[in-house]
Known about the structure:
It contains 15 helices and 17 strands. The protein is of the alpha/beta class. The strands form five sheets. A five-stranded mixed beta sheet has the order 1-5-4-2-3, with helices on both faces. It has a five-stranded mixed beta sheet with strand order 7-6-8-9-10, sandwiched between helices. Strands 15-17-16 form a three-stranded antiparallel beta sheet, with helices on one face.
Amino acid sequence: MSFFATQKMNLKVSCKTGLMSDKPKLFGTDGVRGVAGEHPLDRDTVFKVGRAYGQVLAGHFPGQPLRVVLGEDTRESSAWISAMLAAGLQSSGVGVSYAGVITTPGIAFLSRHHGFAGGVMVSASHNPYQDNGIKLLSNAGTKLGESVELEIESLLDALPAQASAASSGATLEPEVELLEDYVGFLASLASSSHKLSSIRVVADFANGSATRVVPPLLQRLGIESRALNSTPTGRNINLGCGSLHPETMADETKGIGADLGVAFDGDADRAIFALPDGRIADGDHVLYAAATSLHEHGMLKGNSVVGTLMTNLGLELALGRHGIGLRRTPVGDKYVLEEMLRSGINLGGEPSGHIIFSDISLAGDGIITLLQILHLLDETGKSLSELVRPLRQFPQIIRNVRVHERIPLDSIVQVNHAVSEFRREVGDRGRVVVRYSGTEPLARVMVEAEEAELVERHAGLIAGAIELVLGSPK
């Protein structure tokens, strides 16, 4: 049984029994994340994570020579974290092939298609440069299941702290053919019949991993592009740019009369788009355009799309008019993929721009998403504005509250009262989701309804109730 098959089996058992205890403590919804240099991203812990992952891999592939592919984003801390992880892996007898700066989905592709035992990506995705993270991937290019994360965590405490005390990490030299192979794979997704050279694109690289992948890809495809935020310094990744700040990209798209704008995040696993008139198109717009096209061609498996609790109610209603269903999961693309695999659905994603086309890749890939949108523009002869026009999103607000501790939100009387007041006033024509972030010390409040004034008011009331009880000291 492969490492990936083992994870799928464990997922099914977990879902059937409904057990929610024994959750990973070090791993969030997207790997290990924190401030670079501080626990759990201090040198010793990073070394031990690499060593523990190597030991787990050896247990899943007994007696086999093992190699892992390792990549990183452009943060100033990524190089030393990669070196420490590689040293830890090598101390467990696992070889390391270093891809250098590459995207997270690039590591997922290499893990799945090149016989690696697993993959490691050093990135904190959309977070500021001071943060970093470790994303561990299976040999199928998927994020590890919680059972495997728990297995790794169980080994960490037993590993001696002095193991890395004198080590500055492994010496790494990028194997350039790894990046070239991923770019070649992406180029192969755009057939020679596509008239891509007639499409003008504005691309915001967020000063991150996309700077190494997208320019050579667009040049290879003959696509005219205007590059924004493409000079990483180690400290400017995601700084007022990229998928979290797409406004400049959208303004530039409108200003130069481009056909499309796209903004990636730091590791390019998500993409947010701009329409020719400068309006923003998020992941819900992408799901609508892709789902209706696949449905029309009889290629939408399960006749449904997988979204999350944050997916806009407007998308659910718009898909329903085409007879397409929407299944919701907790927030996180790992949960989206789990439901896609469980239900045999080939399209899913999040409003944040994580989109999974599972017939192509099991990883959310902002660059694949761009290529799929370009394909739709070429195939239909329509603009993205025309393709998404039937989608009318409900006004939605997301408020973040920094918290000093995490207690069950549904146990807080003030929060329950504020949520009940919203539901009493709005009924079934609106939604509220209150949850903790999987990667930051934040409580997130999402409110949507047909009237913007109601959304603003109730989001403030619910966030205020959380702030009153759990808010961090200023």
